[in-house]
Amino acid sequence: MSDAHGVARDQLRAFIERIERLEEEKKTIADDIKDVYGEAKSMGYDTKIMKKVIALRKKDDQERMEEDLILDTYLSALGMIPGAGTEEEEAA
């Protein structure tokens, strides 16, 4: 039975070590991305907008359209879209 425990222990250790290596790689990549954003910012680009553009590029057209429609609905309901009055404004 101790042989089976040894195999399980070795497998567990291998999984843990792989995850640790991947976490380190992830940190390195995150640092690289941060450096690229820093470089872009130093060149005058708005990194907040760049991040939004990257997020939008990850979505398909249908998903973006649905989100835009919902956003427009919410903004309209709050009176934040010029020319689109709220119910209170229309009642007045």
Question: Helical residue percent?
Answer: over 70%
The average pLDDT is 91
- Rg for CA atoms: 25 Å
Largest sheet: none
Integer tally of domains: 2
Instruction: Tell me the total number of β-strands.
Output: 0
Plain-language structure description:
There is one protein chain. The chain is mostly helical. The protein has 2 domains: 1-45; 46-81, no CATH class. It has helices spanning 2-42, 47-58, 61-77, 87-91. The longest helix is centred in the N-terminal third of the chain and has 41 residues, at 2-42. It is elongated and about 75 Å long. The mean pLDDT is 91. This is UPF0335 protein FHP24_15520. Residues 5-39 form a coiled coil. Belongs to the UPF0335 family.
Give the SSE map.
Blueprint: H1 2-42, H2 47-58, H3 61-77, H4 87-91
Protein name: UPF0335 protein FHP24_15520
Domain GapR-like DNA-binding: 8-79
Coiled coil: 5-39
